[in-house]
Amino acid sequence: MAAVTEEQQDSPVRKSSEQLKEKVYQGNGGVPGDLGEQEDYGLSGVLEKEQSDILKSSRNVCELLEKIREETEALEKQVVNVCSSGPPKVAAALSAAVEVRCSLDELLQREQRISNRLQQHLQGTKQWMEDLGQMCNHVDFIERSMKYLKCLHHIEELSAAVQQSLMINSVWDAIKGVENMAALDCGLNQSQCSHLRDFLRQTLCFWHNIIKDRLTSDFEKVLAQLQWPVITPNQSVTTPANYQELSSQLEGLLLQLLALQTSDDLISQRASASTQGAPPSTLFPAAPSLCLPIQIMLQPLTKRFRYHFYGNRQTNSIHKPEWYLTQVLKWMENSATFLEEKVQPVFDRSGQTISAKVALCQGLVCLVQEKVASDASRMLYDDGLFCHLVEEVLQFEKDLRSHHSYPAMLPALLHILLDDAFLQKWLAVERKMAVEKMDAMLSAEGAWTSQYKDISDMDELKAPECAETFMTLLQVITERYRALPSPAAQLRFFGLQKELVDDFRIRLTQVMKEESRCPLGVRYCAILNAVNYISTILRDWGDNVFFLQLQQAAVSLGQQEVLGSLEMTEVGRLASLEGSLFDGLLSLLDRLKGDMLGRLLHFLMRDTAEKAQPYCQERWLSIPPPQDQSAMSLSSSACPMMLCVRDRLLNLHQVLSVSLFQLAWQGLAEKLDNFIYQEVILSNHFSDGGAAQLQFDMTRNLFPLFGHYCRRPENFFKHVKEACIILCLKVGSAILLKDLLKRSEQEATDFEDPSPESALNELGVFCLAPCDVLILLDLKASLPRI
């Protein structure tokens, strides 16, 4: 019964288990298999565990069934929630998409219907549009024709008004009508109606010329009664009886001509535009636009100029350009008073900013430009004539700018010389004449003597005549090209100057080599003075404002002829004004000067050394002490050396410039100091008397020879002076000093002992090293050997 009961009890359990599995599997149909498998696996585990307990105890069957039922319901709810949570949202989205698709299809259908209706409408109105376009074009044509006719009628009205004004002598109304025509012409400048523009311009020119001719005739009559032009400065001017009336007429005519200026400028522009295809002249700029009164006043002067300086007249001489240049300057000067008193006040009252004097000068300069350009082209193959023309043009330019206040912004004659052909010729003539002058100045009789030799205050540099003449030549070249309006052209002349300086340096070097056998000769020293003089002048020029401006122009323009092969750092120094354009030449000249000074000092020392040989062989050990001598005197063996030094110094002082002589005597002092120290002091031993005698010879005889040229000559003989101090030390002091120096060498000096340098400084020894002092102490015969 127990077994049957267990089986009976077991069968409901198994049945419920199977039912639970089926429900789980059925409920898992809408979810992934993983979830079902996981649930199955978990449930199987529970069942197996529970079944094992059931087998042990059958009393828990009811509780187990209830528990399983609750868990099954919970699992079913979870499965249902999982399966039903997603589809409602997806369905809503799909429904919305369907509605949008339907709306889009409906809109597309409406668009197609409207497009079809629009095409039908356009097809129906196409013919209407074509008819309307033709009608608008016709209306536009009629409108433009009306405007054309109105403009043509307006031109005819203006022309008739001008004609009527001239018939009744109303010049101001006629001028106003011409001004209106000029304004209309400017307004039609962009119009495509070429025939209308041509008709207007022809009408404008017709009436403008008529008014201009009438005013010109009246203006010339008034000017003639006022005795214009003023040809000579002493021209007799008698005041006419109707002077006041003439003055009022002159003022009225000037104002009328100025009012006519607008149309005159317009006509002149049209004329210049019509000839624009012709190649422009490069010799001189286009003629300036002068006001009408000045143009009329220039006419008699132009006639006179062309009469006298063109054709077969004797005054038209290619050899005498100064004739017409001077004449033009005289006309400017003679006309100034008339213009300032009678014309300029009218210009000022009319509100014009025109200078009557400058305007007249402009017109006369144009005449001269044409003449100079014509003559210069005929002088290209004659150096003398071309050089003379350049000189006269430069003088004319100078007078024009300085005496007649001609503005710098307005071109004059120098612009003609900037033409490449004329500029090349000018440079060639400058180079040729400069070389000829260099040959002449170096071969002249007084080439190596100073023209200021008898004037001590003016002869500090003692420059020979050839050097002064050469620098004057360079200065004249500078003054000639300084006024050129083009920095590029100025730099070309500066390049020529550098070539000439280098050529002159080479010539000086050649003459120096011929004279190097006798460096104390007058010619050798004159060459040295010449090199120093040129260097000094070039350094001064390097700080000159004009050459500083050229320096900036050379850097900005990148002129290789001037800058040469300078590195970027050197070009940067020039740009920052740290260097100068003469640095290359100055380095060559300084090298030549240093070489010549070296040769001179070498010759001096060789001569001095020969005279000093007896002094070097003096028996210094046998000289008695000073207390045994009645009076100390110069050593007899030193007299030749002292005389030689004195004579050479006097000679150099007379033939060398101040700066060169200072370098020479200082160099000689340095070499003498080394020579006496090496050949006299270190080569001998000295008794106390010998040391005293050496000190007497140096301090009382040699040093004073140089005392004429400085306050403390002993400072230039430091080795000799300090050696004499050491040799003249008393025995006790010498022993103590030697002991100190030796102990310092052995590095056994006590902390309390003074340093060797401080001990030597207390004695006045600053130049000699301790080891040199030990050598000198060993030369002192009275000092016992330690």
From TrEMBL:
Which biological process terms from the Gene Ontology are attached to this UniProt entry?
A: endoplasmic reticulum to Golgi vesicle-mediated transport; regulation of ER to Golgi vesicle-mediated transport; retrograde vesicle-mediated transport, Golgi to endoplasmic reticulum
Name a GO CC annotation attached to this entry. Dsl1/NZR complex
What InterPro entries does the record tag this protein with? EXOC6PINT-1/Sec15/Tip20_C_dom2, RINT1_Tip20
Where in this protein does the record put region Disordered?
1-39
Its domain of life reads Eukaryota
Ranges of Basic and acidic residues composition bias in the record: 12-24
Q: Which family does it belong to?
A: Belongs to the RINT1 family.
From the Swiss-Prot or TrEMBL record, give the protein name: RAD50-interacting protein 1
Protein source organism: Gambusia affinis
Top-level taxonomy: Eukaryota, Metazoa, Chordata, Craniata, Vertebrata
